[in-house]
Amino acid sequence: MVKQNGEIAVEMKHITKKFGNLAANNDINLKIYKGQVHCLLGENGAGKSTLMNVLTGLYKADCGEIEINGQPANIHSPKDAIGYGIGMVHQHFRLVKPLTVLENIILGSPKVGFWLNNKAAREEIMELTDRYDLHIDLDAKVESLSVGEQQRTEIIKQMYRGANIMILDEPTAVLTPEEAEKLFVFLRQTASAGKTIIFISHKLREIMSVGDKVTIMRKGQIVGAKDVKDTSVEDLAGLMIEGTISEVKKQSVEKDGAEVLRLTDIYTLHDDSGNVNLENINLCLNEGEICGIAGVSGNGQRELAEVVSGLRFCDKGEIIVGQKVMTNQCTRKFIQAGVSHIPEDRLGTGLAAGLSIIENGILKEYKSKPISVHGLINYKVAKKYTEEIIEQYKVKAENLNRPISALSGGNLQRMIIGREINGDPKILVAAQPTRGIDIAGVKMVHSMIFDQKAKGVAVLFISEDLDEIMEVCDTLAVMYQGHLSQKVRPSETTIEEIGLRMGGALC
Amino acid sequence: MLNEVIENSKAPQKNSFSQRLPFSIEKRQFPTTGAVIMWSIIGVVLALIIGAIFLLATGRDPIEIYTLTFSKVFTTPYGLASAANKATPLMLGAAGVMVAAKAGLWNVGVEGQFLVGAVAASGVALLNLNVPSFVIILLMLVAGFLGGALVAFICALPKAYLKVNEIITTLLFNYIVVLFVAYLVHGPMKGAGNNVPQSAVFAENSWLPQIGSTGIHLGFIIAIIMVILFGWLMRKSTFGFEMRVVGNNPKAAKYTGISIIRNILLVMIISGGLAGIGGMMEVSGVVHRMQSGIFTNFTLTAFAVAWLARLNTAGVLVVSYLLAGLLVGAYVMQIVGMPSAMVNVLEGLIIMLIVAFDIVTVYRIKWKRGNSK
User: Fold this and answer.
1) Interface of A with B in 318-337 (CB under 8 A)
2) Which residues are CB-neighbours of B32 under 8 A, at least 6 positions away?
3) How is domain A257-338+425-507 classified at the CATH fold level?
4) Which chain B residues are closer than 8 Å to A367 by Cβ?
5) CATH code, domain with B308
């Protein structure tokens, strides 16, 4: 199955791309051979997408060179990339939903002039789909297609444009297992026909089943390159994560506090908006425990946070907060029971951007005395309350009557954490609380969370950063496609095991 | 270092033109009140100038017409009083629009709510109850509020539970109400021995009393108080706070445990109720009977007021009076021999220009000093 290394299709030399001080790609050297399926493996944020965006002309590398088929290539725009036969199927499709499959395929193609010649295009596309066994109804509207068929439309679109090098970014993230299987068959077939496939994924089993070569990226660098036939799932998991763990801090063995949260057999059903189902979630948290939820985002972490904070109803199961059964109670009841929530999407969910800093400061407390008395808000007290948060958590804000959207990202995060902690919670749900903030900010967030732990607050700490989870948490569990693994102490597990669970190779 | 290179390579092309200008334009984070007022005035003046071109083109003297209209409306007691009476339902309608807008809703149905409020109040008046005048007027106020609130509530139900766009429901409901009112004044409500589609004149004890000999009815004062009261409640009360959170970010509302459905229904009841009281005041204070077409283009004008006032309570009071003056001016202009459509043109121009200038209020012009090279 694995061919001898032949011609080089793509060679990237010394590619470096920085965003501010962060090197998303640091001196990347990559050779991709013609007629192979080359996998790029890494966690979110490892730099896979940045590298591919450089290849497709969306980003300009700070330095480095690209050669296509052995010739130096100048790729400054996606159009240039198409010219070199590079096509990308993005994770979020670039399709016009009310148009038909045919219209989407020929849309923007350089082959189409001012006049639409559907007949010629149709024949060419039919020939393509026959050759690669990619059958699809060309006259169906895209909005009526399944996700798998939409992806097929994207693939045909790229091939019609003459893509010889096709990049697929997490193509199976949206597919059912059967659809994924079909895609793999197609990819193998296309590679055999001489096309080059670059397959981005963080799922280990997929890579083992479809790839010829695999390059593992971590924190903007390449940390390994292997022939798939010479490697194993365990190997890959290790490479993907190992070494990022600076030092596993031994947690002092704490006395187990009283139980404050128990989830029993929680199930949620699809609500058609792309949410992951939670299936059979069991979890309990004790006072003063920081429990980390690891996993690649989009595997149900947001849904879990929403269930615990009363924002999402569950279809089966039981939630107990403190001593009380809280299953499917309204959000306010959860807040009153002492559940605080730092949401993943700070400005989108946690704050009302157009309202003032003061009004956002009292967002959770506006109904309690003395901020409001007899249904009227006392803005003097509200201002004082907000000033306390701002002072204590070092939010930089000048005029508190200004809309909160004036604050910078780090300050918004401090504001929201400060507000959520200020209410003396019993349970703190922190969803990606350090994402997108600088190192000083991260340290500050961690120390805030340790303070809460010392006060006996149970913390549900959701993060994609395994380093962080290992450093901060007393216990951890891994989420994969709506399932949550058994909770363990960091000392009771190995990095390999966590990696395997994150990649879905171990259930 | 690399960034510097990029900056430098871009700089010459970008600044070749703007560097020669004696000023630069900077963006502020927020518009200042001064800038907003200044640009509003510039908008009005510009509208008058464009209007003057129309007038000149039709062979009329714009300066004469403007001064005559202005002096007739804003310097004579009759003009001032007419404007006040006209402003009364307008400020209530605009307050309705404003309250709904703060909760993120476009209540385009204030016209229908206004009419049903008027009908409900008329119903009370036509009962000819044998009770003191203030009791009747109080009952009419309540009826007006409930009438308007009912219409708005019906329109809000599909929005709250099914997420049907409220612009559609409120807009379409206007047509139902207009025809329903036409049916009433042609049929059940038509005055006896009356060939015109209108109700009998109300008994005098259901008229809103005049304030002294000014010619302004008491509704003007009540309306001002109500607008201030509800504006204040929206800002200071916990229920107003909830509504504003819902309007600003429904996700944040959900996250905080605020019921979106409850607040949509509640704010629409208040919004419609205010418009309904406007209807009550128009029939009880001015027309003294029910008829169709008591205030044409009510929705449009109320929106104009609310938006020109930038959803600010004091602004609503001032702008509704000025715009009412403009409407009264229409009659004056007709006397001077001007088509009343010209007033609509002017009104449209003013609104359009002020809204357009809204964008520039966040920019500041900074004059360059001589030493810059």
Assistant:
1) 330-335
2) B361
3) Rossmann fold (3.40.50)
4) 238
5) 1.10.3470
